[in-house]
Amino acid sequence: MKTGKIIWDGLAKQNPTFRMALGLCPTLAVTTALTNGLVMGIAVTFVLACSNVLVSLLRKIIPDKVRIPAFIVIIATFVTIADMLLEGFVPDIHKTLGIFIPLIVVNCIILGRAESFASKNPVFSSLVDGIFMGLGFTLSLSLISVIREVLGTGKLIFFGNLLFSFDFSVLGFVLAPGAFLTLGLLLSLFNYIDLKRGTRQ
Amino acid sequence: MSLIALLISGLFVNNFLLSRFLGLCPFFGVSKKTESALGMGIAATFVMVIASAVTYIIQQYILVPFDVVYLQTVMFILVIAGLVQFVELYLRKFQPDLYNMLGIYLPLITTNCAILGLALLNVTKGLNFIESVVHAVGAGGGFTLALMLMSGIRERLELAQVPKAFSGLPIAFITAAIMALAFMGFSGMI
Amino acid sequence: MTDESIGGMLRIALILTVIMLLSAIALAVTHIYTKPFIDQTKEQKLKEGLSMVVTQADDFKDLGGGYYEALLDGKVIGKISTVYADGYNDKIKMLIGISDGKILGVHILEHLETPGLGARSTEVRPDEDEPWFLRQFKGLDSVALKKDGGNIDAITAATITSRAITDAVAEELRK
């Protein structure tokens, strides 16, 4: 498979959030602020790239019957490593993300890519797939976070630095209903773009 | 926290789906039919209760005494995966009626974050054995409740005239937003 | 089912065991490497917190169990205790410093309150150096929210968080 196609698939065509609606729990739970969404996205990218590479390396050794438990152990290992690194270097964000870091284990994107891509493709393609699927996820999370943080708190903060602020906020956007609403509206927007494009062709 | 407060918290106030964002995949995937929503809910509650009890024992008698809490995620997910397999085998052999009802939902439950999330929440909240199990019953009940409400609404939405760009997932999310808003009304209960 | 033979089963079991062993080793190594960093950042946050609570102190003595003494030139000028309040989302971990029945300062170490609501309890206004909500407590000998007939302004739309913190401080004052 061509590298360019893998990159485009990950970022846009098969975007995990907006196209496949995968990994919804963290997408809604941690996107109250840009920094949180971004760190979560980077952690998922790290786990996805590492587990993809290892699964691809071991794809001929792991017997088919125990492939799922083996993948789960591999993924859980990288998730725990990411967890410990975050706790050591960005403790405040680690605390905010809370149980959603260990829950990366059950993020369907990661097991999904291990099963449908890395277990069938060579190491380099799997690495590229992992990185760009992860970046696609990070991009989506950041987009939702920015909308919710700006509308919900009237501010945008990037790792403790105030980027801008204004005197307007709809608190609901940082609360649970705002999460569902933001993602619903974004999904419909992408649908609308697709429909427009479809009628023109 | 009293046991009743824990139960109410799981059912309404900190509803897993609508407030904690745990276990959303079946919420938007399975929940188009009320019967399958009920089956999924019961199966998940069943596994949640057993998983809470088992992970509590593992945490208290293996991970903490041997100072290997960093193996928590790996251990918990393996135990949950094994447990789901075991429940499936047991039901198929000894409770065929129940198996026919819940069997197809069980494999989906291993990778449902509500189960692992619950096990981890029990630990971070420092709940004891009984509290963990009660918390599981409340959380599972709340999960089933939200799943069934959603499926009831979506059954009717199928027949409604929805703008094209909103049909399918987007309208489901907006429905969920309104439900979450309604559930926020419970927040003064405890 | 082709590899149902004993040899096939053994091979599967062996491979799974090896994967799990390697996983445990990888985690143990990472744990040993990251532990000093985790401990160090925790200690640093605690130190910062302690000196926020009793600003005039030049040293702190750990009494164990979450209790500390604030020292100035070797003399005890206040006692600090670690207190947990029942916040909206989770427990709020705070440090409260008291001397002669008066509050020296309150500092929040860890919380999971909602951004824009309860999380504003740690909000620092521009040109100020400490959270406005917590500064209200300084020097008081009894505290309650204004809504409850007391002297503390609650955070807008975050009464649960405000009351949880205030109640925890009041409780500590009564001790």
The structural domain count of chain A equals 1
Biggest interface reads: A-B, 42 and 45 residues
Shape of chain B: globular
* Unreliable spans of chain B: none
Structural class of chain B: mainly alpha
**What's the gyration radius of chain A in Å?**
18 Å
- Averaging pLDDT over every residue of chain B, what do you get? 87
Helix content of chain B: over 70%
User: In DSSP terms, counting alpha (H) and pi (I) runs of 4 or more, how many helices of chain B?
Assistant: 9
Largest sheet of chain A, described in full?
Answer: 2 strands, antiparallel
Task: Give Rg of chain B in angstroms.
Answer: 17 Å
Summarize the helix and strand pattern of chain A as letters: HHHHHHHEEH
Spell the H/E element sequence of chain B. HHHHHHHHH
Q: Total number of β-strand segments of chain A?
A: 2
* Low-pLDDT residue intervals, each spanning 5 or more residues of chain A: none
Give the strand order, joined by hyphens, for the main sheet of chain A: 1-2
Number of strands of chain B: 0
Can you give a write-up of this model?
The complex is a heterotrimer of chains A (201), B (190) and C (175). Chain A has 201 residues and is mainly alpha-helical. Chain A has one domain (3-200). Chain A has helices spanning 3-13, 24-29, 34-57, 67-89, 91-97, 108-118, 123-153, 176-200, and strands at residues 155-158, 161-165. In chain A, strands 1-2 form a two-stranded antiparallel ribbon. The longest helix of chain A has 31 residues, at 123-153. The radius of gyration of chain A is 18 Å and the shape is globular. Chain B is mostly helical and 190 residues long. Helix content of chain C is 39%, strand content 24%. In chain C, strands 1-2-3-4-5 form a 5-stranded antiparallel beta sheet. With 175 residues, chain C is of the alpha+beta class. Chain C has one domain (50-174). Chain C has helices at residues 6-53, 132-135, 159-174; strands at 59-64, 67-72, 75-86, 91-99, 102-110. Chains in contact: A-B, A-C, B-C. Chains A and B meet through helix 2, helix 4 and helix 8 of A and helix 2, helix 4, helix 7 and helix 9 of B.
